[in-house]
């Protein structure tokens, strides 16, 4: 799978530091200029459905499970691989200094009607819900959030914005 971006936060020195590695699968679900995203009230941002791959689970199983849990989508079909976003950032996790989040993005198809979600407690507490949104509105919204919020807002909003802009350029504008 192609590397879309390798991002290392500013002022990181990995020497003698403990890094937590996490593998994630994320779905890109388009319908014209509309994209299925997760809106999180706590951070007031949009993000891609997906998340950590469970022990013994492959990337495809992981992305299908995550999309179903977070959006209620049914009949999830993998249309193709899109790419990998590899990032290293500070983490607030006991015994670790940094996280190396490696996100595998897949193009997916679903039935447009969404069913019942199966969100985790922290996702419910953060006010997360799935929404079809115009990709350009999502880009503009996340840019405003970054501009108007403290630097430590949603830890991954820069990844989400990068991916939204890349998808708009490569997939939406070419069709």
List keywords for this structure.
single chain; 175 residues; alpha+beta; eight-stranded mixed beta sheet; 8 strands
Structure description:
This protein is α+β, with helices and mostly antiparallel strands and 175 residues long. Helix content is 27%, strand content 40%. The protein contains four helices and eight strands; from the N terminus they run E-E-E-E-E-H-E-E-H-E-H-H. The chain has helices at 59-71, 121-125, 135-148, 157-172, and strands at 3-8, 19-31, 34-40, 45-47, 50-52, 77-93, 96-109, 128-134. Strands 1, 2, 3, 4, 5, 6, 7 and 8 form an eight-stranded mixed beta sheet that branches. Helix 3 runs antiparallel to helix 4 (157-172). The longest helix has 16 residues, at 157-172. The chain is globular, with a radius of gyration of 16 Å. The two termini are 22 Å apart.
End-to-end CA span: 22 Å
Order of helices and strands: EEEEEHEEHEHH
Rg measurement, Å: 16 Å
The level of helicity is 25-40%
Shape: globular
Overall pLDDT metric = 92
**Overall SS class:** alpha+beta
How many strands, which pairing sense, and closed or not: the largest β-sheet?
A: 8 strands, mixed
Strand content: 35-45%
Short description:
The protein is of the alpha+beta class and 175 residues long. It is 27% helix and 40% strand. The protein starts with a strand and ends with a helix.
